[in-house]
Amino acid sequence: MSLRQDFLSGQVSIGKKLPTETQLAETFDVSRTVIREAVAALVSDGLVETRQGAGIFVIEHLQRVAAVPPLIKQDTSSNISHALNVLEVRIALEMESAALAAARRSSSQEARIQESFFEFDRLLKLGQPTGTADFSFHRSIAKATNNPFYVEVLDALGTRTIPCDVTSPHSTEEVLSFSYQAGLQKEHLAILNAISAGDPEAARDAMRTHLSLSQERYRERLRERRTRYQSDTGGA
Description:
Elements: H1 2-9, H2 21-28, H3 32-44, E1 48-51, E2 55-58, H4 62-66, H5 80-104, H6 107-126, H7 131-143, H8 148-157, H9 178-196, H10 200-233
Antiparallel strand pairs: 1-2
Helix pairs in contact: 2-3, 5-7, 5-9, 5-10, 6-7, 6-9, 7-8, 9-10
């Protein structure tokens, strides 16, 4: 939609609050669902951020992002192997990211991590996709390292950062279930508590646990697929 062109041209200034979903839908003559999906894409690209109770704000220009060569080639494959590869990279990156955030975060950065946490919780209770808030939680932690390269790598991974998001090719009904995502939120809470306590080792361990369990959940899906195949074909 042409909203992205407004970013590209620089017509939308950094820090500016976007109109409401209803106003944008009227402006572009599309449904609110289309607007919601477009905004989710902008959030995933690190161009805007949602602030609970305040609205959607511009944090980066597409023109500036486009000027930087992509670090990682985008791949829309739905193979679980790709999700596992992404999680392997994230473990190496985000364990240290969490530890540094625990040691370096400012009060406002800690608040932003917490806001993303509770936005995930709000969306979960409403039965809405949580992927945007999930990405925001991890990205806020990366920003709290005060090292921009942690954020840059997450942004380069893009929508693949959160494999279970509804917009991801790895999404399934199982991983989008309430109980599945509630389990993720418990793991997020352990990370948040460790960062708030200023405990780098605990933050590192909590992030390792969270992402390692995510890997195991995907491996379990592979095992279940193989078991169903053997059952259907009568294999041993």
